[in-house]
Amino acid sequence: MKIENSSQTKHMKSSHEKINIGPGAGWRDIPKGGVVPEGGTAQRFATGDWRTLRPIWSAEKCIHCHRCWVYCPDMAVISQDGKIQGMDYKFCKGCGICANVCPTKVHAIEMHPEDKFKDDEAMKQEGAAILEDEPKHHGGEEN
Amino acid sequence: MAVQLDRKMVALTGNEAAAQAMRQISPDVVAAYPITPQTEIVQIFSTFVADGIVPTEFVAVESEHSAMSATVGSAAAGARSMTATSANGLALMWEILYIASGMRLPIVMPVVNRALSGPINIHCDHSDTMGARDSGWLQLYSETAQEMYDNMIQAVRIAEHENVRLPVMCMMDGFITSHGMENVILLQDKQVKDFIGEYYVDNALLDVENPSTWGPLDLQDFYFEHKRQQADAVIQARKVIQEVADEYAKLTGRHYGFLEEYRMDDAEVAILVINSTAGTAKYVVDQLRSKGTKAGLIKLRVLRPFPAEELAQAVSNLKVLAVMDRAESFSGLGGPLFSESKGALYDADKRPLMLNYIYGLGGRDVTPEMIESVYQHLLKVAESGRVDNPYNFLGIRD
What we know:
The complex is a heterodimer of chains A (143) and B (398). Chain A is α+β, with helices and mostly antiparallel strands and 143 residues long.
């Protein structure tokens, strides 16, 4: 078994390089077999627009047990300095696991139909955080 | 080039020869499940593992679906990976066959041709691998145990070539070749090791310094482009198959191409045949030739990619060609090789009259008398200049 690095595999255009498939990319330009030749690319794929239910987090009720942060399959719960800050709506798909695992007595997260929120202003009034483009809270390193 | 003089001839069954090829290829991982008539290949190979003769990680799985899945996983992880199967085992791998080729994993798999059930049957025909002809795997067929051995070693190089990167299946006839004993010339272990070289895979999953994702969702935006890449790889494989065969010939003195033409020089009638029946048919051709009949034979070695140009060239001076199918495709028009051959010859400047014989299904014996009756049919058609019936069944209880 031999695992080659990019310098030994020159015939593969995208091997271990950042894939950057522009609008003009053709079949010769993309990695073979649908391989994504780098890690952490989910950070560049905003899945928040899949959401039909929005988790609304209450800063007042939250006891910062971090269950939601542990269970969120999209790492869309924001934590800084050991405190939950809210939800990352750029990635949250609205699965509701966070609301489900939030301790019953605490009940700090509620799911609401997405069409309730007409704009970001309404979201802010509900006490949620809105993230910038480059989230720093995921803990993973950029590759 | 000089042919190796220290080569070693041994008496082996087809399965033993395939197991020896696997021992010499010495893959990193073999995941397999037993099925007649393939069982022996992996059984023999597993004794090499148990005895420490090969360093292979052997994975005993619970089905062929799992065998191919584990093989796909280990190939993507960065390990040269093999499995083997037959008939219904291949059918159970179906879903993963397409994943192996679609993920461009250079897996080499011996397949011992056997009829697909039902009614249940364990004997030879080609319905298993003919069905897999559109799965994106390259297909090499073998008349003898020697050819099976040679095909498997060449298949490693073909599959792993940077312009190909496709899985390859190598076939031989169940029981007839797999369990029949022949003289086989083996290469030395080191010769095989040097010939096949080291395995590599780009973006290996075990390369933890460079993480990668395999098998992600690929919808309307790029799936089509990935299939276009696969089509290109199959086209590229044409050149690679011949280059590898030529290099192998320098090593062994045994020459391979897409087709073998037997006494075709001035032939007027010929049959196109795959695997062991070619041996019987060559005997018949010799008999006919001794009586002055201009009979010839074409044996197809490579079905994928389909050698249309080579076939057109081989039949250009023929009057009539019978395509022999050891499989049905239930189109109502003939077998799969017949359809492929007719399609391939449509653009040829000169093409013979063509007819089809379905033969030997479920291991039905194919005798020289039967083959001779095909040639007699061909001679009649050649005389009349008209194909009376293109869709025939050889040796059927009528």
